[in-house]
Structure formats: C-alpha cells, structure tokens
Amino acid sequence: MAIIGIDLGTTNSLATIYKDDRVQLIRNTLGKALTPSVVGIDDEGNVIVGDVAKERLVTHPDLTAAEFKRTMGTDREYSLGDKKFSSQQLSSIVLRKIVADAKEFLGEEIEEAVISVPAYFNDKMRIATKQAAELAGIKCERLINEPSAAALAYLHEHEWKDGTYMVVDFGGGTLDVSIIDSFDSVMEIIAVAGNNQLGGKDFNEAIYKHFCATNNLSEAALTSEERAIIYRMAETTKIALSTNPMAVMSVVLNDQKYSIALDNNELIKISHDVFEKIYEPIRKVLKDSRLRPGDLEAIVLVGGSCKMPTVISYIEKVTGIKPCTDIDPDTAIGFGAGIYSGIKSKNAKLKEVVMTDICPFSLGTSMFDMKTDEHIMSFIIERNSMLPCSNIRDYYAIKNNQTSVTFDIFQGESIIPENNIKLGSITIKCPSTKKNDFIASARLTYDINGILIVDITNADKETTTRMLLDNNVRLSPKDMERIKAKLDQLRFNEEKDEEEEHLISRAERIIEEALSYEREMLIIALRDFKATMKYGNTVEKRKVKEQFSEFLDRNEFE
Ligand code: ADP
Ligand code: MG
User: Fold this and answer.
1) Boundaries of CATH 2.60.34.10 in the chain?
2) Statement: residue 471 has pLDDT above 50
3) Residues sharing a CB contact under 8 Å with residue 454, sequence separation 6 or more, in sequence order
4) CB-CB neighbours of 442 under 10 Å
C-alpha cells in the first residue's frame, strides 16, 4: 500500500512517490509525467481523461471540459452531452485516472494521496478537493499548499540551505507568490499572496483577441469549434515564443487561411495588463513579510507560465533579482507533494524535515458597530497566522433584552463584510442581557489542513455551539454515496488502448485544422491506421502506432 503525492493542476496533473529514499515521477499509461486535467465523453459515451480528452477540446468542445479547477467548490455545472458534472466530480474523475495509472506504474495498491492546492483556495474549495479524492476512492488526509510544495522541492534539491525564499508559481489559471524561511531543515511559510484568476490562460486569450482583431474576425460570428481552434493555436504560439524570438500563427477556417506574426515585444504589448497583475502579489507578499528583495536567498520559479522568458525578465525587472530556474517548473509542485508523502509515511531520510503552513487570509465575523450603525468585520484570525491556530474574541449585546446573536463568518481582508467571502452563519440563543453586556464569545480554530471550526459560547459559559464551517459545503454521507454511485456508473474506456485512442483523437484534431489537400491525405492515413488497429496482429499494431505518431508529428510541426 503506497502513499503518493498529487499535483492536481488547473491545466495538468501529475503524481509522484517517495521511494528508495528519493522522490520519483509516476508516468501515466501514455508514458508521460503530465496528464492534462481534461475530461470528456467519447463517441460511444465512455468517459475519457487526459491527453485523449484534451485533443477533443477542439473537435468536440461540447463533450469536453477543462480548467474546472477554477470553479472548485462552487455550484457551476459542466454539461458533457446529456450529462452534468460539478468541478468536484470532474476532479474526482481526473484523480481516479491518476490513481489507476499510478497503481499500474507502481504495481501496488494506492492507499492514500497528499494533494496540493493553491494557497488561495478557500475553505469550500479545500473541502471540495478532499471530497473529490474520496469520490475517487482514495484517502486524502492532507492537503499541501502548492507554494509550500514547490519550496519543499527546491530545498530538497539544495541541501535545505538556510535562508528566505520567494516562490512564484504561475500556472494555467492561478498565480501564487509566497515567502518561505528555511532554517536547520525547518521550513516556515512567512507570507503568501496571489491571484486565483490569473494564469497562462490570460496570455492565450490576449493572443486570441489580437489574432481575431488583426484578421477582422468577429468573435460572435465564430462557431465554438472555430473558437477552440484559434484558442489552441494561440497557446501553441505562446509556447513557441518561449524558445523562439518570433512565431507565426495560422489558422484555416472554411478553407481560408488567416495568420499573424508575433514576437515577444508584441506579446508584452498585447498582454501588458496581465504583466501588471503579476506585480501586485509580489509587492503584497514582500510588504506583509516586511522584506526587501535584497533579503531573499533566491526567487524560485515554478508553473508552466514561468517558462516564458518575458515573465522571467518581468520578475527580474520588478525585483531587481535574477530568478532561479534550475528546478523543472512543470514538476516541482508534484515533487513537493511526493516529498511530503514521504514525510507523512515517516521515511527515515526525511525525519529532520519539518514543515509549517499558514492561513493565507484573515477570518472573522461580521459585527454591528454601534458607533457607525453599520456592520463591519471583526477579525479573529489574522492572515499569515501559523497553522494550526485558534483565537477567541468576546462580543457584547447591541440592545436590551437581546436573547439571540448571529455570527456570520467571513474570510478576507475587507472591513466591509460583504466584500469578503461568506463561509457560513450560526445563530445561538442566550440569556437575556442588557445593552453592552457580554453576550457570547466566538472561537475560530483553523486546523493543519486549513479547515475551519467555529465555537460559539454564550454568556453563561455553559453551552458551546460548534459548527464545522463547511457544513453547507461538505456533502452528507448520503449525498456522497449518491454521487459516488453516479460516477461509478459511468463507463470508462479502460479496456481500450489509450495510445490508439490518443492517436485517433489527435489525428481528428489535426484534420480539422488542416487545409483541404492535406486534409484528404490525413483522412486516408487515419483510415489505414484504424484498419490496421482493427485487423492487424500485435506486431503490426505496434509498428503502425509508431509510424502514425511520427506521421502526425511531421504534419503538425512541419
Ligand atoms: P497548472 O498548475 O495551472 O495546472 P501548469 O503549471 O501546468 O498549470 O502551467 C500550465 C500553463 O503553462 C498553461 O497556460 C501553458 O500554456 C503554460 N505553458 C506550459 N509550457 C509553456 C512554455 N514552454 N511556454 C509558455 N507557457 C507554457
Ligand atoms: Mg500548478
């Protein structure tokens, strides 16, 4: 029985394990480390996950869902054909695939996973993630903040060198910046800041818009498939600009070719607002930790978007420090989660390592302010408090003969409660009191996973009402059973050859993007391929898969 680490990303997910005294990547059934966090339904109604599904984002956008992590813990529903899923259910489908692949790769049962989440994930999102694991049939006791995982990976590679570090994690849909202090193998998170609506996606969108504007394409007039084709090419162009000074983006729509040429200067121009938003959390995290960039031992870059030279030089420009790029931005968080799974399974080699975590936002209750006659925030736990933490505050009656009191619990930094995120509400009865008399105390306790417990004790100090604040988000065992049964009913194409499926969906996507004569050639090749896969023997199949894959490479990247 193994414990694995999982980076459940917006864009890509990956799994690792701490084994033979080192952290190791787990490869999926296609032999790749990264599995796209994409779920779809194939032509026969089977659920597909990962690369196979990602290819179909273009050809079957209405049967494919991506980037659902952005709406984790919300009511948003995704329709795949006639089926509806929450992000939690989609995430559980991704986890199920990751775990099944890990089981196959390792040749042993997976008992438990340590899963990373963005530091800025709120209570609801964290609970939803843990329950997604449960729905996938895997135990998840411990969530780890992604920047903490990244720091763990970095320090593991750098002999736990003492110092204060900044970790910038810029992924597909989130940006997290954090300050971590490491002393004598004890890591402490000093501060975190971030933006959970900023990522590589925003560069894709900027390029997409620029492409449409330059070619006089009206976005409203495009079909969802056409939009998906342009979007995909926008991302390909962005990635090309990470290694080339210039890139040409061309798209064929209705047999007409549209194109633009782009270089990194132009990219900076068309996405200047994205760059500006990168600075804000960097500034905030330094201010919160009362540090100047000069105090940092290193700036560690992780996340796919940190592979962009424009992003690296922007960070260098605003901090005056050359960021360190010697750990792989794609796998750092997964590695950190894997190292943590090693700590959790009490690996002797990691026994010196201690990791502390913090609460990334302030928590408190809304309070009636008798001075101003309006509701304001009363903060009980300050942001960046070390976990686990607990704090108590007393509250007073606002009128004579008050017999009940309501606590609305919020997370966030604004003095105006409504500007923060409401986590729940609790009303208690209390002995009748006079105005200004002590009426109740509220204790907030934040556990090691960043999950909140509220205890309200009334004036007679005898009754305490406890609420797990996720009550309204946490599914009841009955609901869990119902959803699990629904997910178990889905047909997964597990008995199918995934490599074959991937080649077919990839070919179909390239066919959609191709010009007419190329298209004809691709169609013939695809039909031949399918015929061999149907009627050929094992040796022929293996050979034709290799050949077809090379053929697609040539057609895609020529
Ligand atoms: P997440 O943590 O959100 O799953 P990742 O850290 O895997 O995301 O980053 C995914 C993002 O990184 C995507 O927006 C992708 O386009 C971008 N990306 C990946 N590789 C590169 C590259 N070589 N150059 C620029 N952007 C890249
Ligand atoms: Mg990530």
Assistant:
1) 363-447
2) no
3) 407, 409, 424, 426, 442, 443, 444, 445, 466, 467, 469
4) 23
Strands 110-117 and 2-8: parallel
If you average pLDDT over residues 20-46, what whole number do you get?
A: 94
How far apart are the CA of 465 and the centre of ligand 2, in A?
Answer: 38
User: pLDDT exceeding 90 applies to what percent of the chain?
Assistant: 59
Query: Separation of 376 CA from ligand 2 center, angstroms?
Result: 35
Closest CA to 308 of 267, 262, 269, 259: 267
Q: What is the CATH T-level fold of the domain 160-327, as seen in this structure?
A: Nucleotidyltransferase; domain 5 (3.30.420)
CATH 3.30.420.40 boundaries in the chain: 160-327
**Kind and range of the H or E element at 378?**
strand 374-381
From CA 404, how far away is CA 220, in angstroms rounded? 54
Cβ 36 under 6 angstroms from ligand 1 = no
Q: What is the mean pLDDT of the chain?
A: 90
Residue 242 Cα, ligand 1 centroid: separation in angstroms?
11
3-state class (DSSP) for residue 268: helix
Q: Determine the Cα–Cα distance for residues 532 and 447; give it in Å rounded to an integer.
A: 56
User: Do the beta carbons of residue 507 and residue 552 sit within 8 Å?
Assistant: yes
Most confident stretch, 12-26, 186-200, 497-511: 12-26
Structure tokens given for 387? 């976990």
Task: Give the position, in ligand 1's atom list, of the atom nearest the Cα of 201.
Answer: 14
Whether residue 266 is predicted with pLDDT greater than 60 in this model: the reply is yes
| Buried/exposed code over 62-92 (b: 16+ C-beta within 10 A; e: otherwise) | ebbbbbbbbbbbeeeebebeeeebbbbbbbb
Could you tell me which CATH class the domain 363-447 is placed in? mainly beta
Angle at 287 between CA 283 and CA 289, to 5 degrees: 120
Span 431-460, pLDDT tens digits: 888 999 999 999 999 887 767 889 999 887
State if residue 305 touches ligand 1 by the CB under 6 angstroms criterion: yes
What phi, psi does 80 have (nearest 5°)? -120, 100
Which tens digit of pLDDT belongs to each residue from 109-151? 999 999 999 877 877 888 899 999 999 999 998 898 888 899 8
